Amino acid sequence: MTPHGNPRQVLTIPSPAVVKRLLLLWVTVLLAVNAYGVTFSPFTFGPPRHAFDARELTRFGSMERGAMVGSEVLFMEPSAWARYRYYLLGTLLVLMLVESGLVALLLAERRRGNRSRQMLERRFAIERVISECSTTLSECAGEKVDAEIENSLQALLAAEGADADGCAGMAGQRPGRAVKL
Questions:
Q1: Helix ranges restricted to H, the chain
Q2: What is residue 13's DSSP assignment?
């Protein structure tokens, strides 16, 4: 609409500066020259090059068959391995380190359990000998007490895994002599 209200088309002629800029833009596009003066060719001369969109090939099921030899597939998504390789390898490394640490802890616990079991077996063996000795001493006659004490000490040393000569040497006495308590 015009300012007077008459509905008709208005043709305006641009100023010479605008026409000059439009012509420059048109020549730039036509001659493929960018604003910095670098020329590039919109057409490639040589053997024909075929490019395919990987999304469309997948959509139509042609990706399995593959594109033509020498063609270029554009917009192809990298595989999960190519995309997350370093994350997967890092996770695998962390899991291996954690598993190695757990195995080391299990081995240490096993060694500690074996030592505890051996100590308990030794302690129960000594307690069993002491219990048998106290039962024997409580039932024996007064004149046989010294002999029973000697037998009990020998049984205690046997349960402990030591010999009388070793105990005499530890007590500062000569081997072969009885240890007095």
A1: 16-31, 54-59, 80-139, 145-160, 164-170
A2: P
Assign 167 to helix, strand or coil: helix
Q: What is the DSSP letter of 39?
A: B
| Structure-token pair, residue 132 | 């048998």
**Segment 30-86, tens digit of pLDDT:** 766 555 555 555 555 666 677 778 888 888 777 656 666 777 778 888 889 999 999
Q: Are the beta carbons of 26 and 17 closer than 8 angstroms?
A: no
Beta bridge partners of 121: none
CB-based burial, 148-179: b 16+ in 10 Å, e otherwise: eeeebbebbbebeeeebeebbeeeeeeeeeee
Q: Residue type at 10?
A: V
* Token output for 1: 């609409």
Quote the tokens at residue 90.
């890092």
